[in-house]
Amino acid sequence: MTSTTRVSVSDGRPVDDLGRTIRRRHTIFWLSGLSLGLVLTIVLAVGVGAVSVPPSTVSRILGHHLLGAPAEMDWTLAQDSIIWQVRLPRVLLGAVVGAALAVCGVALQAMVRNMLADPYLLGVTSGASTGAAGAILFGFAAGLGENALSASAFLGALGASVVVFLVARAGGRITSLRLLLAGVAVGYALYAATGFLIFASGSAEGSRSVLFWLLGSLGLARWGLPLALVLVIVCLTVAMLIVWGRRLDALSVGDETAHALGISPTGFRVRLLVVVSLCVGAVVAASGGIGFVGLVIPHVARRFVGAAHSRAVPVAALLGAVFLVWADVVARVLLEPRELPIGIITALVGAPFLLLLVRRFQAAGSG
């Protein structure tokens, strides 16, 4: 009896049927566990804050609103309002933003073939920050009312993406190195532009607001169209990256491998850039600049389920969602009643991880 054997694009090694079965079960185990963990995280996180609500009460409130479950209302109207109107939208936005940053980090690391790449790399976050600073300090897009900040940030992110694309394309075909250099250059230029807007405004209160937004916050989360749009965009992005899993595998190995499999590296990078830019622009417009999620979580996901992107992308999405929700909980309660920018918490976790990652690369290089 003979067994079929194929070559894995992600690592170039033969994978037999038994190996595929083991990896599939391993992936299902992690996906199931992380999905359950995300549900528990949401229930627990919405009950934590200045006014604590027991998980049992939270479950009844959520069941009452989501499922119309008949229940004796043994909770107060204040608890109902806090859970449903304030905390649940915030926790859901945190989960969506965390998932988006994580999967975009996975895609960018494959696109530029650099394990230290993250959504900050392409200047998208800097563009959103410049747009948001203009809205806060000078009233850009004021005609959009309460959505002016998000709209300005999103337009800034899209503008930065277009500039990066044009700069990377100016030298001919788009390569990993050109994207990397264009993103870094545009990001620094927009960072300088944001600093100029802060000093030009002369507003101390506006400057504090911009600084808080630059470090990330989920405080703007509310039920409505913005949250729904971000949710739809992120879900579509995750689905597309899963479908493109084998293409991402090929691109991460090298352009020659991609060509051998009938994939145009330049065309695929352009599609990836568009998808990632739209997704990052949407989430940064809703939450501000939150660092390290797109850098740290992809490495953890690969350690759990391997390098194949069809497995790493959904696992990274769930890991990113759980991580950012708990980071937001810490940001809310650490200095209560004051709230810390969530980017401070993610940096405190991400910076030591980055140092460990650098040591690992050094050890691998010396070995």
TrEMBL record:
Top-level taxon in the UniProt lineage: Bacteria
UniProt keyword annotation of Transmembrane helix present: yes
Name of the protein described by the UniProt record: ABC-type Fe3+-siderophore transport system, permease component
Pfam families in the record: FecCD
An individual GO BP term: siderophore-iron import into cell
Transmembrane regions listed in the UniProt entry: 28-53, 91-108, 120-142, 148-167, 179-200, 220-244, 272-300, 312-335, 342-361
Gene Ontology CC terms: plasma membrane
Lineage: Bacteria, Bacillati, Actinomycetota, Actinomycetes, Pseudonocardiales
SUPFAM superfamilies, A to Z: ABC transporter involved in vitamin B12 uptake, BtuC
Family: Belongs to the binding-protein-dependent transport system permease family. FecCD subfamily.
Annotated InterPro entries: ABC_BtuC-like, ABC_transptr_permease_BtuC
Keywords, in A-Z order: Cell membrane, Membrane, Transmembrane, Transmembrane helix, Transport
